[in-house]
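Hey L., structure's done. Input below.
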Amino acid sequence: MGSPSYALPAGDAGIAALTDLERVPLYFASDITIGSTSMYADYVFPDLHFLERWEFQGSHPICR
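Output:
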């Protein structure tokens, strides 16, 4: 999982938008860890780790 605040140009502008309650009054995140953007979420729903999924590893092609 990538972090938009580090991967995108001017990613810090996204964090400023997440902390502005007039623009984003309620923020839900789904992640396996608390990251640089999900730490500002009102609710964090746990996502599945790749070892917890009901599928065979490598059964779905990875787009690169």
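Residues 4-52 form one domain. Residues 12-19 form the longest helix (8 residues).

-- N.
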